[in-house]
Amino acid sequence: MVYSGDMGADYSGGERQESCRLDRGTLKARESRIAALEAQVEDYCRQLATALTRAVAKNRELAKRKPWQMARRRPKAPAARLRGTAK
User: Distance between CA 24 and CA 1 in Å, rounded?
Assistant: First the structure.
């Protein structure tokens, strides 16, 4: 609990009630803000999970195709010409 003023000050009944009301209002506002932020975090977690699921599925699909592509023959490099053998 945060008090304005000296920590050792003696609070009378009126000051203490006003302070508690402000503290309760502040706490309520903070709790509602925290709840809103938690909802945003959950939404971002769902979006991240969706993106990761799509990326994994895409990479698995590409991995299935890859062996076929590697089985193709590579074109041979052209033979090197020797100097002085041209006619």
Answer: 10
Nearest to 50 by CA among 39, 62, 58, 40: 58
- Calculate Rg over the CA atoms of the chain: 35
* Residue-wise pLDDT tens digits, 1-16: 444 555 555 555 566 6
Q: What is the pLDDT of residues 24-68, one digit of tens each?
A: 889 999 999 999 999 999 999 999 999 999 999 999 888 887 665
pTM tops 0.70: no
Which runs of consecutive H residues, i.e. helices, occur in 1-87? 13-71
Q: How far apart are CA 15 and CA 22, in angstroms?
A: 11
